Automatic annotation (TrEMBL):
Transmembrane segments: 58-76
Natural source organism: Bifidobacterium aemilianum
Domain of life: Bacteria
Annotated protein name in UniProt: Protein-export membrane protein SecG
Database matches in InterPro entries: SecG (IPR004692)
Membrane topology field: Multi-pass membrane protein
Major site of localization recorded for this protein: membrane
Alphabetical GO biological process terms: protein secretion
Amino acid sequence: MAIVKLVLQIVLVVLCFLLTLLILMHRGKGGGLSDMFGGGLTQNAGTSGVAEKNLNRWTIIIALLWVAIIIALSLISKFHLV
């Protein structure tokens, strides 16, 4: 079970970085972090609605996986399975 916990922790770290990148890729609504890191450039480039919808879907999927892994790790710790 220790291997499962280690794998979940590694996946959690990877998902944290991926989720941060996906959030920063969203189109800025004015003056936020996404504009600071180049999000305004995509707004001028005219991103399509389909690309924005797909980005939203991926962000939601990764966020749900992130939450599920956090819950799994807390249950493993609570019931001392490792």
